[in-house]
Structure formats: C-alpha cells, structure tokens
Design brief:
The complex is a heterodimer of chains A (123) and B (617). Chain A has 123 residues and is mainly β. Chain A has one helix spanning 67-75; strands at 8-13, 16-24, 27-33, 36-40, 46-51, 55-65, 81-84, 90-102, 108-116. In chain A, strand 4 and strand 5 form a beta hairpin. The mean pLDDT of chain A is 88. Mean pLDDT of chain B is 82; it is low at 553-557 and 588-617. The chains are: A mainly beta (123), B mainly beta (617). At the A-B interface, strand 4 and strand 5 of A face strand 1 of B.
Chain lengths: 123, 617
C-alpha cells in the first residue's frame, strides 16, 4: 500500500501568488471569536450586541526554516499571505511580527501570529 | 425618526422591527453606497469602509455629520456617500440608510498601507450652505413654495420636498438678501448670505422648521408643530424587561435662563402698513404663574424681545408660540444612551418612561451620535412635558382572556398558522414565544413557514411549542402552549360531511374537500369489503357529486363511506371519512331508478365473501 505523506506547508504572497515558500509542516494553534459583548441596560437588562463576521487568529510555527526563508518571511510581514498546511487548510492572513529561534542544526524555528483576512483566489 | 417599517424594511411589520431593535441577541453590520450629486447609486463602498459613525445636531446650521474611515480615495467634496446599517436578530434582518454626506476633510497617516482616510462628512445641507455672493431678491406676491424652489434651483440643487399648504401663501413684501447690506439694518449686515439662510428665512416666515435632510438625502421642508402635540414615534421604557435604554441617564434642570415674558415684533411689514401694535405686528406672551420660571415663581419679570420676519400677524403668533414652547422646555435636558438605533432622525419625539426619573414624559431628541460598530447611541433629549403630563398606567383592571392557540399540523410546503381568540378591554399587543427561537412581536396570528428561513417563524427546531403573551393596559396574560407538528401533505381546510339522501325523492349527494395548494384529488369509497376498505371511485375533482340516480351502494345495504385522497406533490393527506346514508321513503320518483345492492354471503371457501348484484327495477 502506498502511503503519501504531506509534510509541507506553503506560504504564498497574496499580491503575487507565484512567490511562495515551502516549509516544513507547521504547528497551528487556531483561535476563533465573534466580535461582540454583553451590555447592561437600565434595570439590569443584559443583552448581546455583536458585530457581523468572525475573527480568527492563529499562532503558526514553522520548524527548521533556512536563513533565506526567514528573510523572506520577515519581508512579507504586513502583507496578505495565503497559508496552506499539510491538512489542506487554507487561510488568507497577515502577520506583523516574526519570532525566530535558533536551532543547533543552523536552521531556525519561526513563529508568526497571523490574523485571518477576507481573501479569494478567484480570477 | 425613520418610519419603522418604511422601505427598505417594508417587508416587516412595525412590531417585527420593534422586536428587532429590542432583540436580546443583536448582530450589527454596516456598509456604504457611493452616490452621485443627484443621489443616484454609483458603487458599493462597503469593502473600503473600515468604520465610522454618524450623528446629528438638530439645532446646528448643518444637522447631520459623519466620520468615516475609508481605504479608498474619493473625489473629496464632490462624491456623496450614504452609509447604512443592518441589524439582525436571526429572525429579522433589516437595513436603515443613515443619511447622505459630502466628505470634506480627508486625513491620512503617511506611510500607512493601505492608505486609510479619516474623513469628516456633513449632510447635503452643506451643499446649500454656500455663499450667494450677489444680491438675491424675491418679489412681493410670489408664493413661498415658488420662492423656495427657485432658491434651490439657483443653488444648483434638486431633491426638495415641501409639505403643507402654508407654503402656498405669498410674500407680503419683497425680500432681498444683499451682497452689500444696509448698514442700518442689522439683519443685512450679518455674515455673508448663504443659500441655506435664504431658504430658512423663507421657511421661517411661514412657521416651517428649518430645512433638513432625511436618511435618503432628500431636502425636507415641513411646517413646525409643537412637539408637545406631536405623536411619540417610539417608546423608551427604562422599566421594561426589553429596554434598550442605558444604565446612565443624566437629567439637567435649568430654571435660570427661561424668560417669563416675550414680546415678538414683525419686521417685514409692507411700507404702507400702519405702525405695529399689539395684535397687528406685535405679539406678547406672559407666563404669570405656570411653574418655577413664571413671574410668580421667580419674583421678577424677565422679558425677551424677539424679531421675526413673518408672512402675517398670524404667522408671527405661531412663531412666538413656538419660541415660548422652545424656551420653556429646555428647562429639563437629558443625556442618555441606548443600544443601536439606526432609525434616529430629525427632532424625533419619544415617550420616555422611567420611574427613577420621576415617571413618564415626552421628550424631543435634539442630537445623537451612533457608531457603525454596534456601539451605543448617545442622545441629547429635551423634556417636552413634565413627568406627570403623560398618564401613568391605569390601576389593575380586566386582564385579557386568551383562548388558544391549539395544537396545529403544518403542511410541508405551505406552512401553517397559529392564532388566539382574545376577549377583554383592548387594544392588545401580542408577543409570541418559542423556547428555541425566543420572543418575537407579531399580531394575533403568526404564520409559521416551512422551510424555515431567516425572517420566518419555522418549525425546524427541537422545541415546537409556541405561546403568546397578550397585553392590554391592565396587564399581561400568557396563553397555553400549542405544539406544531409537520405533516408531509396538504392541510385540508374543508372535509366532506356525512349526509342522508332519500332515493324516493331522487336526491343526489355532494361531497367536497378543500386543501390549499393541492395538486390532485382522488375520491375513494367503500365497496364489497365494507367499511374501512376503500377503492378509487374514478372521481378526481375536489367535489364528488351525483345529482340523481342510479346509485350503487355498499355492503351495508344503505350505508357507504367516502373519503378524499389529496396530493400536493410532496405528500398525501386523507380527508375525514363521510358516510352516505340512503333511505327510501317508498314513494316519489326514486322508484323509477334502478337500484343495485351487492348481496354478501359469508364463509366462502376461499375466505372471501361471495357477492353478486341484485337489481331492483
């Protein structure tokens, strides 16, 4: 029986999808929320007022990233990217900071906090 | 304020929109349209609208204002923008336009990507608030309506609505707004004249309120009406379980600046008019004893002399009364906040009920500000009546008597209805409940739709129990709970009824079944196997009728059963069984009919009854 291991995560620059990074599969930590709050009105009435849409923030860690790839990731900070992981999940997102940790083998572990944005690859 | 169920919310009732505004779980969305100078739609700006707010200062020169965060460059100062807000409760989704604005002062942070502009905007009065820059005159004898329309046209603007016949009165004297004013006339040495001032001077002379812009950007000119006599447009009840009034409510009382004597002078009398006297060009009002600001209350007379350009002495009186009402009501000002209320408009009049603030009073909104993101609306209100001026709820009396609703079957494709019968002193308000869907306002009958989509009351929920709270002035009564069940066929609204016919009289029979939405009717009748075993009769219309013999009857000699199979393309429903009883009185024309009985013998070898027909000639 053939076994297909998909271990690559892809990062593409949304403004130019031909620019991509193939990285080792990322660790995802996925947080989702709805913008809104519970307000207290006269007489103690409690009421939910929320905004349309949903928020999604992810913490993504790429292991064993080369120095050149780190530079590319840093260069794409603040720009919309298309993130695809080994499970086929696709997220249009943006990150503003890049955390880089050294590894003994000369590569790096890179963690980015990304926020999902509306996006589409339709042409 | 905007009419609750005006377009684009006209698919809903006022009760549904009220329920939406007061919903316990409200979702807010917003967007904006780009319009041209004639209010025509140009583009959807929503993808580029980051946020913002709208507001209104009803006493300001230009009333409506907005702040927008836009990630798109517009023709600032030229393009018009119409923001809107969409509220959703899950059951109801409704949109409110929030006015039309011209954007004036874009501000951006250098280096920001993408470039985002914080821009101030003002409603279309801003386009009218341009200087005339020349002498402008209106001749005596011209109607105010014509003069106002001409001023708009001269300003290059369209889209003005003038309500009321008072605009058809004529100017008693020529009116001029001069580029170089008469130094002896303080009215003409004021700041350079704008088109807005021209229009408002004309409106004021016929006791119209100053021109204002509505939610769709139309210029509106309408007669002034004392807010004390205007019907409240909404009720904000701090003591209601569904209140949207905020916790913090501030009342400010000002008993100092209110005059207690007013003298009004008409300034635009024709040159040949006599010297003004009381009753002809001069109008005086005195508050001797009414309230703490009266002459008695303050111990001194505080006089205000006010000049008005009025079309007639009667208009001067109207303007004077309006001023007196205005001066006296500002003694109580309120600052409150509410949940999102996108229908806020111009000088809205509300009923404000708040036991902690002294009871129920009528208020007029003079300003408000509402963010797009669902934040609270900040209001400035002024009390129009004292807290005791609006009647308190009456003492306990006769509560409504509610009968129903009853358990109901609902057609898969047509839905169904629940209703209650209510007795007692009205009027009544209704609030239907479902444990899963929550509360929603509606009238005495609710229509339950299938399939259940947003905006309908559907049965595709775990709890299909519905009940209704019926309220009159004496209190609220909760009905029994009715359970809605779904059947896969049409709902039969008329079943066939049993009947008796006399063959001796040649009587026929008629069975009818009615089922809205049905696509096929098939009548079935009993035969050889007796009651309960039906065969297709071959009649496939809503009515099965036979007006005369011959008859063929079933095994019980003179009784036969009928029912109708009704199909709506999705499912089948059977009508009630109706029995036809045949008698033969032995005389009359029926004896001439052939009459056929099947005669049945039991105990046949094959287990079936043995039958054969016998005919009575």
């Amino acid at each position: 029986m053939a076994v297909l291991n998909l271990e690559t995560a892809w990062v593409n620059l949304a403004s130019d999808l031909s620019q991509s990074l193939a990285l080792w599969s990322a660790d995802w930590s996925d947080g989702r929320s709805v913008p809104g709050d519970v307000r207290t009105y006269a007489g103690g009435r409690r009421r939910v007022v929320s905004r349309a849409g949903k928020l999604r923030n992810l913490s993504v860690t790429f292991p064993t990233v080369t120095g050149a790839q780190v530079e590319t990731l840093v260069g794409w900070a603040g720009q919309t990217i298309l993130l695809r992981d080994k499970r086929g999940r696709i997220v249009w997102c943006v990150y503003f900071s890049v955390s880089v940790s050294d590894r003994r083998d000369g590569t790096y572990d890179v963690t980015v906090q990304v926020a999902e944005v509306s996006g589409s690859a339709a042409v | 304020m905007q009419v609750l169920n005006a377009a684009p919310r006209d698919a809903y009732t006022t009760a549904q929109i009220t329920a939406l505004l007061e919903a316990g779980n409200l979702t807010v969305d917003f967007g904006a349209d780009l319009l041209n100078l004639n209010l025509g739609f140009v583009d959807d700006l929503s993808p580029d609208l980051v946020g913002g707010s709208v507001g209104r200062d009803c006493y300001g020169t230009v009333h409506g204002f907005c702040t927008l965060q836009l990630s798109r460059v517009l023709r600032w100062g030229v393009d018009l923008v119409r923001p809107y807000m969409v509220l959703s409760s899950g059951l109801t989704v409704a949109r409110w336009n929030l006015g039309v604005y011209v954007l004036t002062t874009p501000q951006r942070t250098v280096g920001e990507t993408p470039e985002t502009y914080d821009v101030q905007g003002y409603d279309r009065l801003m386009l009218l608030n341009r200087q005339v820059g020349a002498d402008y005159r209106v001749a005596a004898g011209v109607t105010y309506r014509a003069a106002i329309v001409a001023a708009f046209a001269a300003a290059g603007l369209s889209g003005v609505l003038i309500d009321g016949s008072a605009a058809d009165s004529t100017l008693p004297a020529a009116r001029s707004w001069l580029l170089v004013g008469d130094s002896t006339n303080p009215d003409q040495t004021a700041t350079p004249v704008t088109w807005l001032r021209v229009v408002n001077d004309l409106l004021n002379a016929i006791n119209f309120r100053a021109v204002w812009c509505d939610q769709d950007g139309q210029f509106r000119c309408s007669g002034y009406q004392d807010p004390k006599v205007r019907a409240p447009e909404y009720v904000f009840d701090a003591d209601s379980q569904l209140t949207i009034l905020g916790e913090d409510r501030t009342l400010t009382e000002d008993v100092w600046s209110t005059p207690n004597r007013w003298v009004f002078r008409q300034t635009n009398r024709s040159s040949d008019a006599p010297t003004p006297t009381e009753g002809d060009g001069i109008y005086t009002r005195v508050n001797d004893t009414d309230g703490p600001t009266s002459i008695t209350g303050r111990g001194l007379t505080w006089t205000a002399v006010v000049d008005y350009e009025a079309a007639s002495h009667a208009k001067l009186v109207s303007l004077g009364d309006r001023r007196v009402a205005s001066d006296r009501r500002v003694t109580t000002a309120l600052k409150v906040w509410t949940g999102p209320f996108p229908g806020a408009g111009h000088f809205d009049v509300f009923t404000y009920s708040d036991a902690a603030a002294g009871g129920t009073r009528k208020v007029q909104a003079t300003g408000w500000r509402m963010p797009f993101d669902g934040g609270n609306v900040e209001w400035d209100w002024e009390a129009v009546t004292s807290a005791s001026a609006v009647a308190a709820p009456p003492a306990p009396g006769v509560l409504p008597t509610v009968t129903g609703p009853v358990n109901t079957s609902l057609s898969v494709i047509r839905g169904g209805q629940l209703s209650v019968s209510v007795m007692g002193p009205g009027p009544f308000t209704y609030r239907w409940f479902n444990n899963a869907l929550g509360a929603f306002f509606f009238d005495g009958t609710i229509t339950i739709a299938h399939p259940f989509t947003a905006g309908t009351f559907g049965p595709e929920i775990a709890d299909r129990g519905y009940r209704v709270e019926v309220t009159n002035v004496f209190g609220t009564v909760t009905s029994a709970t009715a359970v809605v069940s779904i059947i896969p066929g049409p709902i039969i609204t008329l079943h066939p009824t049993s009947q008796t016919v006399d063959v001796a009289q040649g009587q026929g029979f008629t069975f009818t079944t009615t089922a809205p939405g049905a696509t096929g009717y098939t009548w079935e009748e009993t035969g050889y196997f007796g009651p309960g075993v039906f065969y297709a009769s071959g009649v496939n219309t809503p009515t099965y009728a036979l007006t005369s013999g011959p008859y063929t009857y079933g095994v019980e000699a003179n009784r036969k059963q009928f029912r109708c199979r009704v199909d709506d393309g999705v499912g089948v429903t059977y009508s009630n069984v109706a029995t036809l009883t045949v008698i033969n009185s032995g005389s009359g024309p029926s004896n001439t009919f052939p009459f056929t009985f099947p005669i049945t013998f039991g105990g046949a070898a094959n287990g079936f009854p043995l039958t054969f027909p016998v005919t009575f000639p």
